[in-house]
Design a protein that fits this description.
RmlC_Cupin_sf; RmlC-like_jellyroll; Jelly Rolls; 27 strands; Pirin_N_dom; Pirin family protein; seven-stranded antiparallel β-sheet
């Protein structure tokens, strides 16, 4: 999915946290997906103070939206560099097309994972015969310096490992949890899983103490005893070996975690880079390729989407600067 704000903020991420932080509630900000008449998504990462959880650098939660008789999601071809996109649905369908020639429908319980590497473009749309409700999560993972220029590639995982406990179940999208391991490609130590919690239960999840973890609420839940409303994220910090998620009714949540990302990065529009000059260069390459339909350029061409590719927003007047992964509050 694209960050298709007309005037995207400069989003600074990366760097080492100097101390184990206290748990922190991250509230989403609303962003229109596709313009002022489009559905709104709630964005919890990057947040004002905390921009990353491990290598997870972007988290949008959308729906449930009734798209009966509507086009639904329509995100024209757009570019990415230096990241992986993770598409996860709770309800509905999204059709992916990319410049490598892949066309893949994703449905609930399936994972579309696209590694942008040095550059790729793709589109996402609700298919013509889509169901009434669209509801899902879009996540990005920053690639580390040594792998951020890998060749782009795409994976679809139609069946993912599921671990069950008396209190619920965990579907493991990436990494390992509760003895289950996903085959999805990762470039840094991390975990991503959807949790289903039985009504009235508290699900105790053993986690890697060397990771930092956060829980995105897909329904109203508690995390380590703290109330977290739908669409909010609780950053649970580092050093813990267990996260407890409770729910009065049947609950759902996303658990995200990973080794603290030690690099400073700059995230602007759909690019993850390390400097203003790098972002300006890839933006210029996208614009040249978009205007000339250059199949051999960095981003290639997406075929089959019935609308022009997205034009890149103008760069901000001030130079983009890499900063720490946590905002300096002093």
């Amino acid at each position: 999915m694209s960050n298709i704000e007309n005037d995207p903020d400069e989003l600074h991420c990366g760097g080492v946290a100097t101390a184990a932080p206290e748990p922190e509630l991250l509230r989403p900000r609303e962003v229109p997906l596709g313009g002022p008449r489009a559905m709104l998504v709630g964005r919890t990462l990057p947040n004002r103070d905390r921009r990353m959880v491990g290598a997870w650098c972007f988290a949008d939660f959308y729906g449930p939206a009734d798209i009966t008789g509507q086009a639904g999601m329509q995100v024209p071809p757009h570019p990415h560099t230096g990241l992986q996109t993770v598409s996860w649905l709770l309800d509905g369908q999204v059709l992916h097309r990319d410049s490598l020639g892949n066309t893949q429908l994703v449905e609930p319980g399936e994972l579309n994972l696209m590694t942008a590497g040095r550059g790729i473009s793709h589109s996402e749309e609700s298919p013509a015969d889509h169901s009434a409700i669209l509801h899902g999560v879009q996540l990005w993972v920053a690639l580390p310096a040594g792998q951020r220029d890998v060749a782009p590639h795409f994976e679809h995982h139609g069946a993912l490992p599921v671990a069950t406990t008396p209190e619920g179940a965990a579907t493991v999208l990436m990494g390992s949890l509760l003895g289950a391991t996903s085959s999805a490609k990762t470039y840094t130590p991390l975990v991503g899983a959807e949790l289903s919690i039985n009504a009235g239960a508290a699900m105790r999840i053993p986690v890697e103490p060397g990771f930092e973890h956060a829980v995105l609420a897909l329904s109203d839940i508690t995390v380590n005893g703290q109330q977290v409303s739908t669409g909010e994220m609780l950053y649970a910090g580092t050093g813990c070996d267990e996260v407890t998620i409770g729910s009065a009714g049947a609950g759902r949540a996303m658990l995200l975690g990973g080794a603290p990302f030690e690099e400073e990065i700059v995230m602007w529009w759909n690019f993850v880079g390390r400097s203003h000059d790098e972002v300006a260069q890839v933006r210029a390459e996208w614009e040249r390729g978009r205007e000339s339909s250059d199949e051999q350029g960095r981003f290639g061409v997406v075929r089959g989407y019935d609308a022009p590719a997205l034009a890149a927003p103008a760069l901000p007047n001030a130079a983009l600067r890499p900063r720490g992964r946590v905002r300096d509050r002093h």
